[in-house]
Design goal:
alpha/beta; UDP-N-acetylmuramoyl-L-alanine:D-glutamate ligase; Protein-Tyrosine Phosphatase, Chain A; 2 domains; six-stranded mixed beta sheet; globular
């Protein structure tokens, strides 16, 4: 059965790729490609919002960034998952787009990602971008266990910058020393963004928005040459979202949209689910939902955001296994545990690998009475609910397969809003054990 599914998938991927290639040749849209190890989806969504008032534009849905997701974006069709009838309809719709004339976006915002070697350099090199945006490249990225080294991951994820031709634009996180190392041809424009003094588009005066003693969002100013505009984003926490909005501003400026227009568009921006979203919790607590996925650098940023967030009660971190770290797993879990001891008042771990988080926290001085270890998320949620007090802030994070969004749902003040607010709430995911 597994071999049959793999064969079926290979056939679907081949047809979708051919159709997508023909659609690009026919309609000739501009391509804006987003790459990086951290923050791709958030940046992609912010770029889409910043450009949406100025262009007919389409973006990758959710985090569809591989050999199936990218063609789906180009063709404008949904993921059929394991339903052959949906895939048949998709292939028919793709053929219709080629054979008949239809309205088609001027710009495509395409997210690309690498789970295995060759995912970008081999599977997606048929796409020729006009603009490439590079987010972040940490020391140890997720999926590193499938590569020869952390540097090999960075090399593959930066490959799209080398596909740019003269007149193209490479936009990169100027606070990340790896992002700027991408090699580009002499005729490619380079634009940096970040918090540092030497970037082209800079964020300053970053702070949390506080309403009724509860953090409700973030605000900061964006500087570009002689311009300065104010930006606010409700319902989120952490600097990671500022980076995403900066990427949106940089992308807009690179293709002729004014900074003012871009930031006016971003007023309506909604951050993707499971990425440092603020949700009201049980017993007047506040949840930081960062459950989409996990990696060492993302966990570090989330814990630092937890330590900085205005709060009246305790800071509680519920952290699950970080997967696909290979030989780096023990050390990285231990390191994050050490950071947890410095940034939160209580640590709750979920999973076998996360036991090293607990060990690291206790060795760094966190009282053992404030460290709780569980094998299942459901047990962790039950324990935390019994302890929650008004004003507590709870960070929930873990790798995708740990399904920590279920913990968030258990802790929510209004769990009936889970489908609206949480990640992985479609039928395909909910049907999985």
């Amino acid at each position: 059965m597994r071999l049959l599914k793999e064969f079926f998938r290979s056939i679907v991927v081949s047809i979708l790729t051919l159709q997508a290639t023909l659609v690009l040749r026919k309609y000739k849209p501009h391509i804006l490609m987003v790459t990086g190890s951290v923050g791709k989806t958030s940046a992609k969504d912010a770029i889409y919002t910043a450009l949406s008032k100025s262009f007919f534009i389409r973006k990758s849905e959710k985090s569809f960034n591989g050999d199936i997701g990218v063609p789906l974006t180009i063709l404008g069709i949904p993921n059929g998952w394991s339903n052959p009838f949906v895939w048949i309809k998709n292939l028919v719709d793709g053929a219709s787009l080629i054979l008949m004339k239809a309205p088609y976006p001027e710009w495509l915002v395409v997210e690309v990602g690498a789970d295995r070697p060759g995912d970008i350099t081999k599977s997606l090199s048929w796409i020729k971008p006009d603009v490439v945006v590079a987010t972040r490249f940490p020391d140890i990225s997720v999926h590193v266990e499938f590569y020869s080294s952390p540097e090999a991951v960075v090399k593959e994820e930066l490959a799209p910058a080398g596909w740019l031709t003269d007149g193209g634009t490479f936009i990169f996180n100027g606070d990340d020393e790896r992002a700027g190392t991408a090699e580009t041809s002499k005729g490619v424009n380079r634009i940096s963004y970040g918090f540092g003094e030497n970037v082209d588009i800079r964020a300053i005066n970053f702070q949390a928005i506080v309403e009724r003693d509860i953090s409700s969002g973030i605000s900061f100013d964006v500087e570009y040459k002689t311009e300065k505009v104010h930006v606010e984003l409700q319902g989120v926490s952490g600097r990671s979202h500022a980076y995403s909005l900066l990427a949106g501003c940089a992308a807009a400026l690179s293709i002729g949209v004014s900074l003012q227009t871009a930031t006016e568009s971003l007023v309506a921006h909604s951050a993707p689910a499971g990425r440092m979203r603020l949700i009201l919790g049980h017993n007047s607590s506040l949840i930081i939902d960062d459950t989409y996925n996990s990696s060492p650098v993302a966990s570090s940023e989330a814990l630092l955001a937890l330590s900085d967030i205005p709060h009246r009660g305790r800071r509680i971190a519920i952290l699950a296994d970080m997967l696909e770290l290979g030989s780096f797993s023990v050390d990285e879990h231990n390191r994050i545990g050490v950071l947890a001891a410095k940034t939160c008042d209580m640590l709750v771990t979920v999973g076998v690998r996360a036991k090293n988080l607990a060990r690291g926290a206790k060795e760094a001085g966190m009282p053992p009475t404030q460290v709780f270890e569980f094998d299942r998320g459901a047990d962790a949620a039950s324990h935390v609910i019994s302890l929650l007090q008004p004003g507590d802030v709870v960070l929930v994070k873990g790798s995708q397969s740990m399904r920590m969004e279920r913990v968030v749902k258990s802790l929510m003040a209004e769990p009936d809003k889970a489908k609206e607010l949480l990640v992985r709430q479609d039928h395909e995911w909910l049907s999985r054990s």
